[in-house]
Amino acid sequence: MSYRNIPKPIRSGIVVVDPGTGAPQRVVVLQFNPDTLERSLAPQSAGDNSDSGGGGSGGGDRNEALRLKGPAQETWKFTAEIDATDQFEVAAPDGIHPQLATLEMLVQPTTEQLRAASRLSQKGTIEISPIEMPLTLFTWGSKRVMPVRLTELSVNESAFDVNLNPIRASLGIGMKILTVSDLPAGHRGADLYMAHLAQKERLAAAARGAGLGALGLSGTFSGRG
Fold first, then answer.
1. I need a labelling partner for 122 at 20 to 30 A (CA). Which of 38, 43, 108, 156 fits?
2. Is the dihedral of CA 112, 94, 135, 42 positive or negative?
3. Which strands, in side-by-side order, build the sheet including 24-29?
4. Pairing relation of β-strands 166-177 and 145-160?
5. Three-state DSSP state, 69
């Protein structure tokens, strides 16, 4: 039996992009696609009110009940595996330290950025802007390419070589999808989010609709006294 015609699986991964030029700076390909994805969407409703007392005068503006202030806040969580136990010639001499360091640098400023901030402080600069990180994209196939900010990175190292270099690890990764509400107008990440949202709209339009009969309803909805 020939397996040459079996499609090669697409890998998920992370792309670090220069926000000014759009040029990829680093590409992190996950060795194994996660088995599961945990996704959460919180709508930004205009009618949200901190008072949870229910109806009456304590409720939100009824005219705002169906309005949205902006895109939903979406978060992703998944577990990724890195395993070099059967690839010692690839892992040597540092084990999987390089792969782990690449991911950790997504949530760390560089030494040069820290030195630059220190020089500004020594010069007496009153206000030093927070360090801006490169634009990070998460890709899960061609239909999910979106700007993200890593919010969680936990590492469980479970195997080591004779030099105590890690050669197997499980990574817990959490990220927030960055929307036009998070990024300034004209930012490349905002454009990429709009493309991501447009892809969702195309997929939703392709869904097969159903009639009211499937719900045990018939006719059309009409107002009742």
1. 108
2. negative
3. 24-29, 13-17, 135-139, 145-160, 166-177, 68-83, 38-45
4. antiparallel
5. strand
Task: Kindly tell me the number of DSSP H helices and DSSP E strands found in the chain.
Answer: 4, 7
Rounded alpha-carbon distances, angstroms, from residue 137 to 17, 29, 187: 7, 12, 14
Residue 103's SS3 state is helix
Rg (the chain; Cα; Å): 24
Dist. CA 167–CA 145, nearest whole Å = 29
Decide if 62 contacts 46 (C-beta within 8 A): no
**Residue type, position 51, single letter:** D
Which structure tokens are listed for 72? 């939903």
Cis peptide, bond prior to residue 19, ω within 30 of zero: no
Token readout for 62 is 């009824």
Look at the block and give the residue holding tokens 């015609």.
5
Is there a contact between 46 and 148 (Cβ–Cβ < 8 Å)?
A: no
**Cα 13 to chain centroid, rounded:** 10
Q: Quick: pLDDT tens for 62-108.
A: 788 888 889 999 999 999 999 987 655 555 688 899 989 989 999 88
pTM above 0.90, yes or no: no
Residue 219: what residue type? G
Q: Beta-carbon neighbour count of residue 108 at 10 Å?
A: 13
Name the residue type at position 129: S
